[in-house]
Design a protein that fits this description.
The protein is α+β, with helices and mostly antiparallel strands. About 35% of the residues lie in helices and about 20% in strands. Strands 5, 6, 7, 8, 9 and 10 form a 6-stranded antiparallel beta sheet that branches. It binds adenosine-5'-diphosphate and magnesium ion. Adenosine-5'-diphosphate binds next to strand 2, strand 4, strand 9 and strand 10.
């Protein structure tokens, strides 16, 4: 299952079709009969599910009724229909789709997440650079150099948030900007337990990306210099070992705290003093062959074919799946 994609959609939206196609190929090669089903707003897919009676749904749905936050409704409906599905539970997807809610839970558990604000901003505890980003949308949507601003007052932050919300029609937040390095840590479930894969650093080559961020162009515009100059790397100097260990440990804690299952990816920034900060938890990360998840698996000798099989086994193990309930 994937969200329906309109003709002329932007690359971040079209990407789900790349995932659906490449995963379908693997499944068909392994003897499954595959039926690609768009999660339409009118819930017609529920009738299709009744008719097809799938052994399993590979859930790739990133947005429902045009909203990232609503994507949790798909696993919820699948669960109510008694259908096994891959990946994370609706609860885990709901909580992690909201970056503010995620931060609150991280802070309760003493895990590092920078200060962030939503409207109305009543108090900015520290003047400085902040990044303005969607509260519940993914894929670097709206992120550019303009997203990073020097903020001194609540009013200033409030005004920018209000303008962005008017422009994009979804909620925004602003968060303390972390100058430093960026890491993605992928994790897969093996019988309910997390296997954290070797962290990947996103290395920003050259000087054309002054804030060294994965903005929309770096992620999606293949013709841009930023796209070519944002490179995933798995090789580290021995000095980085303690940091890599720390990223793995934090990711494992996130798995347990957020009751993740199947597969996930945690995004980090590491500040200039070497302290890691969690940016977000992706409970439904991109799973195309060129995704961070597939690259991290391949780096450990797990082919794309094997990765898909691991994800499926996890959802069908003991005919239960490993979607923990809160
Ligand atoms: N607090 C922050 N400090 C520095 N860079 C950030 C911060 N928050 C986000 N970014 C940059 O913006 C990108 C997208 O933000 P992220 O929170 O991961 O949302 P998403 O990937 O869901 O769009 C990150 O990969 C990072 O480069
Ligand atoms: Mg991210």
């Amino acid at each position: 299952m994937h969200q329906p994609i309109a003709p002329g959609a932007l690359p971040d939206e079209r990407d789900v079709l790349v995932q659906a196609l490449s995963i379908s190929r693997v499944l068909e090669k392994n003897g499954w009969f595959v039926h690609c089903l768009p999660a339409d707003d009118n819930l017609n897919f529920l009738d299709d599910i009744k008719k097809v009676k799938p052994d399993l749904v590979f859930n790739l749905v990133e947005t429902f009724t045009n909203s990232g936050l609503n994507s949790f409704r798909i696993p919820m409906l699948l669960q109510m229909s008694g259908v096994l599905y891959t990946g994370n539970s609706s609860q885990a997807i709901y909580i992690t789709s909201d970056k503010m809610l995620t931060k609150t839970i991280l802070n309760i558990h003493d895990l590092p997440a920078e200060k962030a604000y939503i409207r109305p901003v009543l108090q900015i505890r520290e003047k400085g650079y902040y990044i303005f980003k969607p509260q519940c949308e993914d894929a670097s949507v709206s992120i550019s150099d303009e997203s990073v601003r020097y903020i001194e007052t609540c009013e200033q932050a409030d005004k920018i948030l209000e303008a962005l919300e008017k422009q994009y029609n979804f909620p925004f937040m602003c968060e303390k900007f972390i100058w430093g390095r960026e890491f993605n840590v992928s994790v897969i479930g093996i019988k309910g337990n997390p296997r954290v894969l070797q962290p990947a650093e996103i290395v920003f080559i050259g000087d054309d990306n002054p804030y060294r961020i994965v903005d929309y162009a770096s992620k999606w515009d293949e013709s841009s210099l930023r796209y070519r100059n944002s490179v995933r790397s798995f090789s580290f100097k021995p000095d980085d070992n303690p940091l890599i260990q720390k990223l793995v440990e934090i990711t494992k804690k996130c798995w347990h705290i957020f009751k993740l299952s199947g597969y996930a990816r945690v995004d980090f920034r590491v500040d200039e003093k070497g302290k890691p900060w969690i940016l977000e938890i992706n409970a439904n990360p991109c799973s195309s062959p060129d995704s961070g998840l597939a690259a991290a698996a391949e780096n450990e000798g797990i082919s794309f074919n094997e990765l898909i099989n691991i994800i499926i086994n996890e959802a069908t193990h003991d005919n239960q799946g490993y979607h923990s309930a809160f």
